[in-house]
Each structure stands twice: as structure tokens, then as C-alpha cells.
Amino acid sequence: MEPTVRLDLTTILEATGELQHFLDLGAARLRAKGPLSEEASEELIFSLADELEDHLREMRSRQGSASISDLRTWTRAWIDERQEAGPEGPRRTAP
Question: How many CB atoms within 10 Å of residue 67?
């Protein structure tokens, strides 16, 4: 069984200087969705956080370790990719 490390995403975002960028991405997604219930808004933000956490975990497993600089690079690339996809998020295509 492989060891699992729980990421503290808030700490990572603060340490890498990407917290505001992540919040801006979340706010853009919320605006694009229109009025949502508090529960739906939280679900959207938590799903973004889960996606980012999965991405960071995947990148770390590929590399074997991660410095703050690595985390910053990976986080920024993930945020940039989502911003380029537009406020609605990536378009899903049928297989």
C-alpha cells in the first residue's frame, strides 16, 4: 500500500503565492454559473480544490518529490489552463 499524504491546499496556495489566483478562478466560475445556492457554490469551489489537489498529487508522484517552487509552477500552470478554458470551465466532449 502506497503512503498517502493529505495536502493542506490553503497552506500550499499561501506559500506559493497562488491563493488569490485560485480565489479569482473560483469567483469567475461562480459568476459564470449565475445565482447558485450556498450549497451549490460550496460544491463548485470544493470541486475546484479537489481537482487542484489531485493535479498536485499526480505531479508529485511523477517527479517523486516537490519543492515550493515545483508546487508554485504546477499550481500556476493548472490555474492558467482553467482560466484559458474560460469561466465555464473546460468543455467536455463525448467519448
Answer: 9
Instruction: Locate the DSSP E strands across 40-95.
Output: none
Give the whole-angstrom CA distance, residue 19 versus residue 10.
7
- Contacts (Cβ under 8 Å, ≥6 apart) of 90: 82
pLDDT digits (tens, 9 = 90+) for 43-63: 999 999 999 999 999 999 999
Phi and psi at residue 25, to the nearest 5°: -60, -45
CA distance 62 to 71: 13
CB-CB neighbours of 69 under 10 Å: 9
Mention every residue, 6+ apart, whose C-beta is less than 8 A from residue 41: 30
CA 78 to chain centroid, in Å, comes to: 7
Residue 7: C-alpha distances to residues 40, 58, 72 (Å): 23, 12, 14
